[in-house]
Amino acid sequence: MRLPHSLVILFAISAAGVFAGAGASPAAGSASESQGGCTLRIHVDGLRNSTGVVGSAIFKSPDGWPEDMSKALHHWPTPIAPGAHEATTVWDNLPPGDYGVVAIHDENRNHKLDRNFIGIPKEGFGFANNPHVGLTAPPYRAAIVHVACPATETAIHMIYK
Question: Domain coordinates of the chain in residue numbers?
Answer without folding.
Answer: 5-21+46-157
